[in-house]
Each structure stands twice: as C-alpha cells, then as structure tokens.
Design brief:
Layout (H helix, E strand, L loop, with lengths): L6 E4 L1 H18 L6 E7 L3 H10 L4 E8 L14 E3 L9 E9 L3 H10 L6 E9 L12 E5 L4 E3 L15 E4 L2
Parallel strand pairs: 2-3, 2-5, 5-6, 6-7
Antiparallel strand pairs: 1-9, 3-4, 8-9
Helix pairs in contact: 1-2
Bound molecules: inosinic acid and magnesium ion.
C-alpha cells in the first residue's frame, strides 16, 4: 500500500450484495405505488444511486439536490446551504432521499426539514454509510447500508477534496 492508497474497509463485492438487499427491501416496501421519486444528494450519491436505482423493480424517477459540503476540510460546521434545488414538484409523491453517508446527520436533517413542507405523500431516507459514533439525531435512517467507524472514507462516490470518488470499494484515509 502506497501512502496515497486507501485501506479497504468495505469490498466491492460486499457493497454489491448490500445494495442488492436494500433494493429488494425498497422494491417490496413500495410495491404498488405509481412512482417512487429518488432524490440524490450531489455529488457523493451518484454511484450508489446509479446502482440502487437500476436494481429497483418499482416505477421510479430521479432528481437531484445539491447542498454545501465541508469543502476540503473534514469537519462538519453544521451550516448546511442549498446550492441546487429539485426540478420536480414533490407534492403528493413518494420521495426517497438517497445519500452516500451520514456523519453528524445535519445534512439529512436540513433536507428533511426543507422537503417535508412541500407535502410529499411520503418522505424517507436511504443512506449507504453511517458513523454511529458521530450521528447525534433522534430519528432513524429508513434504509441503511453499513455502520462504519469514525474514519474518513472514500470511494464508491465519496471523496476527499474531490479525489478517490471512482474507487470501486470503500476505503479509509488519514486526513
Ligand atoms: P453530515 O451533515 O455531518 O451528516 O455530513 C454528511 C456529508 O458530509 C455527507 O453527505 C458527505 O458528503 C460528507 N461526509 C461525511 N463524512 C464523510 C467521509 O468520511 N467521507 C466523505 N464524505 C463525508
Ligand atoms: Mg453527501
């Protein structure tokens, strides 16, 4: 391992299996709905959302939302800002927010509060990774991939200062 190479935390195969399980649960829970709107949080969600959405068996559409991130720093300030809103009206629709990772939970909390008043038929969350040591919210994630230790992780869409997003596995780096 070179100093630059992340240490493998979750293999490509383990991700593939878990994403397939999540897709099965979501497909079964939403069976019969007219359409499920998947709302991806840019940019970290893009690979997870691409894989998950193609495995679903319910009618679905996709939209994106972008919020401010930590930039090149690895500490949450708690200040979340909407950078790009949805193009879709969500009133009356079944909405599933899809994100790569929850750390403190501020980002998801902010989006939940922003979308709820638009009166979706339902609003749930699907997140690939959670750091339980950091997560301080009193609500649960509806569909969770993995709990991980409090490390900075990269790959499968996740970055550090915009690097490593296209690694096929999830690895940890020293920041
Ligand atoms: P939160 O608002 O503290 O929950 O932070 C959530 C956002 O921070 C995620 O959607 C990621 O964009 C980013 N983030 C948090 N932890 C990591 C990490 O370990 N690697 C890459 N991005 C992270
Ligand atoms: Mg994110």
């Amino acid at each position: 391992m070179t100093p630059d190479e992340p240490a493998v935390l979750i293999t490509e195969e383990a991700i593939r299996q878990r994403v397939a399980e999540l897709a099965r649960r979501i497909s079964s829970d939403y069976a019969g709905v007219e359409e499920l709107l998947l709302v991806g949080i840019l940019r970290g969600c893009f690979i997870f959302l691409a894989d998950l959405s193609r495995l679903l068996t319910v009618p679905r559409s996709i939209d994106f939302i972008a919020v401010s991130s930590y930039g090149a720093s690895a500490t949450s300030t708690g200040a979340v800002r909407l950078i790009m809103d949805l193009r879709t009206e969500i009133a009356g629709k079944h909405v599933l927010i899809v994100d790569d990772i929850v750390d403190t939970g501020y980002t998801l909390q902010y989006l939940f509060n922003a979308l709820k008043p638009r009166m979706p038929a339902s609003l749930k969350t699907c997140v690939l990774l959670r750091k339980p040591e950091v997560f301080k919210m009193d609500w649960d994630i509806d569909y969770l991939g993995f709990d991980i230790p409090d490390l900075w992780v990269v790959g499968y869409g996740l970055d550090y200062a915009d690097r490593y997003r296209t690694l096929p596995y999830i690895g940890s780096i020293k920041t």
